[in-house]
Amino acid sequence: MRDLASLPTPDTQHTCLLCRTYGTVLAMTRGKRTSAAELEVRLLREGIIESRHSVQAAVCDNRGRLLSVAGSAETATFVRSALKPFQALAVTTTGTIERYGLNDRDLAIMCSSHHGSIEQVRQVFNILWRSDVDPSALQCPIPIGKHSPLQHNCSGKHAGMLAVCQQRNFPLSSYLQRNHPVQKLILDKTAELLRMPAEEFICAHDDCGAPTYFMQIGQMATLYAQLASGDSLDMERIVRAMTHHRNWSRAMANSIPN
Question: Cα–Cα distance between 224 and 9 in angstroms, integer?
Fold first, then answer.
C-alpha cells in the first residue's frame, strides 16, 4: 500500500460517478474513448443561470470496460464515503452478520452517510450492543454541536469494522490504522474486485479517521458496476439493504467524491 506523497490534487471541477442535476446537462460520449468533453451542469434559479459546474463522469461494466465517459476516466481522486458498500464486505464475508444476528437495517446504516438522527444512532448502537463492543471504542470524531461519536455520519461504518474485529479477535483500539487486519481485509476485497495488487493503492485518512484510497473514476465506476451485477451474494445483500432502507443508505447519492 503506497502512502500519499506529492500527488496532483483535483481542480475545482467536480468529479463523480453518477450525476443528478436540476439544470441543463450535456450528453456523455459512448464508445471506446477514454476521454471526451466534460459535462456542464447549469444551476437555474427561476430560469436564470446562477452557476455553472464542470463534471467528469464514467460508466463502466462489471469487467471494467468503459461504456460512457465525460472528461477523462483516468481522472483520480479519493473515493471517501463512496467506498462504504465495499467496506461493508468485511462484514458480509466473515460471518459477522450471522454470529451477532445483524440484519439489513444494520447493514444499511454501515453503508450510509447518515444524519445522526435518534433512530439512526440507535441502529448504530444496536450493532455495537449485539457485538458486545462498548461505544467508547468508536474513533470517529464527535460532530460539532453533538455529544457522541455515535452521531457522526460514518459511525455505522465504524461500528461494522468494530464488529468484524470482535468476531475475528482483532484489536479494537487500533482498528483505524492502515496495517490493521480489518483494514487489510477491506483493501484486499477492493483490490480483488479491481483485479490489481493491494500494494498499488495510494492511501490517506478520511475526515472520519478511516483509511481511504486514491482511485481513477473509472475504477470507482467498475466497483459500482460489480456491486449491482448480481454476481456475488454478499454484494447482492448489500444492495438489497441499501435499496430497502434508502433513506439511510445515502453513500451512492450523497457521498460521491466532489
Answer: 23
DSSP annotation of 117 = -
**Per-residue buried b or exposed e for 132-167, using 16+ beta carbons within 10 Å of the residue's own CB:** ebebebbbbeeeeeeebbbbbbbbbbbbbbbbbbbb
Instruction: Tell me the chain's radius of gyration from C-alpha atoms.
Output: 19
Distance CA 38, CA 57 (A): 8
Task: Scan for cell 480489518, then name that residue.
Answer: 182
Domain boundaries, the chain: 8-76, 78-254
- Could you write out the three-class secondary structure of 37-68? CCEEEEEEECCEEEEEEEEEEEEECCCCCEEE
The torsion of the CA quartet 161, 164, 169, 171, rounded to 10 degrees, works out to 0
Model confidence over 69-118: pLDDT tens digits?
Answer: 999 999 999 999 999 999 999 999 999 999 999 999 999 999 999 988 99
Query: If DSSP codes are grouped into helix, strand and coil, which group holds residue 153?
Result: coil
Catalogue the long-range contacts made by 167-171 (C-beta closer than 8 Å, 24 or more residues apart).
167/94, 167/95, 167/96, 167/99, 167/100, 167/131, 168/94
Find all residues with CB under 8 Å of 158, minimum gap 6, and list them.
Answer: 138, 139, 140, 149, 152, 175, 208, 210
The CA distance from 257 to 103, in Å, is 28
What CA–CA distance (Å, rounded) separates 147 from 145? 7
| Three cell numbers, residue 253 | 447519492
3-state DSSP assignment of residue 216: strand
CA–CA gap between residue 245 and residue 243 (Å, rounded): 5
The better pLDDT of the pair 129, 29 is held by 129
Give the global pTM. 0.83
